[in-house]
Amino acid sequence: MYGAVIHAPGDVRYEERDDPTIVEPTDAVVRTVAACVCGSDLWRYRGVAPVVKPTPIGHEYCGIVESIGTAVTSVKVGDFVVGGFLHSDGTCAACRKGAHANCLHGGGYAGCQAEKIRVPNADGTLVATPEMPADDLIPSILTLSDVMCTGWHAAVSAGVGPDTTVAVVGDGAVGLCAVLAAVQLGAPVVIAMSRHEARQKLAATFGATHIVAERDEAGIAAVQALTDGIGADCVLECVGTEEARWQALGCVRVGGTVGLVGLPHGDFPTDQLFWRNVGIKGGPAHVRAYLPELLELVLSRTINPGLVFDLELPLSEIGEAYAAMDERRAIKTLVRP
Amino acid sequence: MYGAVIHAPGDVRYEERDDPTIVEPTDAVVRTVAACVCGSDLWRYRGVAPVVKPTPIGHEYCGIVESIGTAVTSVKVGDFVVGGFLHSDGTCAACRKGAHANCLHGGGYAGCQAEKIRVPNADGTLVATPEMPADDLIPSILTLSDVMCTGWHAAVSAGVGPDTTVAVVGDGAVGLCAVLAAVQLGAPVVIAMSRHEARQKLAATFGATHIVAERDEAGIAAVQALTDGIGADCVLECVGTEEARWQALGCVRVGGTVGLVGLPHGDFPTDQLFWRNVGIKGGPAHVRAYLPELLELVLSRTINPGLVFDLELPLSEIGEAYAAMDERRAIKTLVRP
After folding, report:
1. CB B204 within 8 A of CB B183
2. Which residues from A are below 8 Å from B102, CB to CB?
3. Contact call for A276 and B229, based on CB within 8 A
4. What is the ipTM for the molecules in this complex?
5. Which chain B residues contact residue A269 at CB under 8 A?
6. Is A55 helix (H, G, I), strand (E, B) or coil?
7. Angle formed by the axes of helices A147-157 and A287-299, to 10°?
8. Is A104 at the interface with chain B, CB within 8 A?
9. Whole-model pTM?
10. Which among A97, A275, A278 has the least Cβ separation from residue B255?
11. Beta-strand (E) ranges in B135-207?
12. For position A265, what pLDDT does the model report?
């Protein structure tokens, strides 16, 4: 089979790889229907994270079960399935608490931008759709593998609900999904911080009640002006840079909470949080915990997070898929074998 | 009138001070029935925080309203009242969100270990009892001024509820009140970490289901053994030292939350929190937000947090009140004029 392999910064190749096989009885092999490029994949593409050797890449996928190990009971060959960017056993003490991203026996994949994927812990990872989904639903289902669940996790971690005002820092795919999550969770005020017109429009489509284009102190002042002068109850930090985190801290009210899903780059000033009674919570999203509910919202066409994909390419053009995101010509690129 | 004045580390004196008066129309003057010494008062007593000049000290009190400003409407002369360690206006945007400790117009007092206290923002700060309380309820009412509400705040900030396991780091008055709070909030497992027999007994009286006497790695292992091997859902950090914070981080499960009320001494490693999906939240307690509910629990004799006082002295012996706590001869000292 063929799949993406990163060789060096800026060098992702479509090349032949060994077909994945069932290694453990709890494995499944999934024939990919769609995969995509994640903002976090760009770390290595941009040389921010090291590439020590040629490595299969990608961690978002949906597809059709091609084979299962002897211990797998919850999905069968031919099922259309989606799974999260980390696999999880679903039975350990962490999973039983809903903390699937921190499963005691979980981990990542050997590259999901590929024609086929080995999924360990299939029973604790995959969720099958009741029937083969309509093709136009594929992008939204694919977002459940990471970005939609990650935006949802930001909102859940920050305690978003029907009584909370929300500001979202970051207008990438995760930030836009966080807007959608906050709206879906009933927040009456959802402020999207973005200065890119196309992303502002998508945020509005997802239900953002306000757009703030300013950054830094002016952005904070604009959020405060929309939130009774004190800042938002919940701020969803969907970038991870130091700048974004300061933005988030400036936009949250005393006693509020910052939901963190942007991959972290350095520690927060926690003493300052303390005196302001500001909480922080977040991390890798517990995808499997959220999948059933969010899959139903997608299949019922209640939410359409697939709109974050503004470029679709054949898997064979994976190099261009990365370049388009790196150069910000695309918010997020979907690839199909 | 007479009151406590700290002159230097180890030097708290009972001396004559000017009688407080109504300065703003929103003020009340309260004749103190009981006051006490806080662990945080010991910072200056021990020379950890500076004493730049002789300063009236103390921030916990209950008493009888002696006079009120022309704008005060919620309490009247003769009422028995309790207020928090910070005053709050009750009307600003922060207070309307229940974040009274971060009131936009709040602040501290000019020394509550005194015969009389000027209480600014009386309407937004004081709560009156329906009638004069029985004398044996005074200690419990007094704890609502700080330690019981602070323990409660730790539990609320950490999300303690009927489904959560809880570990409490710190066996001072706040830690013991945090045990009581967690039990009252319905937590089925409440682990008190203490190696002092008297404090262990009080924790058990307050409803702790388990006592862990070990510290450091052994303490963490003991908590994990009681919580399915992964740690507690909620850890209440009621000390603030670096050692206590590491203990708290070690005792919390992936996906759990640490409620922080120990006054902070240096920043947390937040990147590490992120990867474990551990949240932190807390700060100065929103006393006024909790007072009505907790006062009712005290007056109905549902809870008896006053048991944290194991020494009572006349206010005139305030120096000994400090020395007893400094030398750990007392958990907490109550003083009466």
Report:
1. no
2. 254-255, 276-277
3. no
4. 0.96
5. 267
6. strand
7. 110
8. yes
9. 0.96
10. A97
11. 165-169, 189-193
12. 77
Domains with residue ranges and CATH for chain A: 2-146+286-336 (3.90.180.10), 148-282 (3.40.50.720)
Q: How far apart are the first and last CA of chain B?
A: 10
The nearest alpha carbon in chain B to A100 belongs to B255
Beta bridge partners of B107: B87
What is the tens place of the pLDDT at every residue in A227-240?
A: 999 999 999 999 98
Single-letter code of the amino acid located at B12: V
- Candidates B223, B233, B234, B270: best to mutate against A (most CBs of A within 10 A) is B270
Q: Which of B253, B279, B286 sits opposite A279 (nearest CB)?
A: B279
Q: 139-168 in B: which are within 8 Å (CB) of A?
A: 157
List CB contacts (< 8 A) between B283 and chain A.
Answer: 273-278
CA distance B266 to chain A (A): 6
Provide DSSP, A266-307.
S---HHHHHHTT-EEEE-S--HHHHHHHHHHHHHTTS--GGG
B107-140 pLDDT, tens digit each: 999 999 999 999 999 999 999 999 999 999 999 9
The angle at the Cα of B184, spanning A255 to B247, to the nearest 5 degrees, equals 65
Q: How far is CA A55 from the centre of its chain?
A: 21
| Neighbour-count burial of B66, counting CB atoms closer than 10 A to its CB (0-12 exposed, 13-18 middle, 19+ buried) | middle
Terminal CA-CA length for chain A: 10
The pair of three-digit structure tokens given for residue A88, joined into one six-digit string: 């999880």
Letter for the amino acid at B156? V
Instruction: Give the per-residue pLDDT at B85.
Output: 98
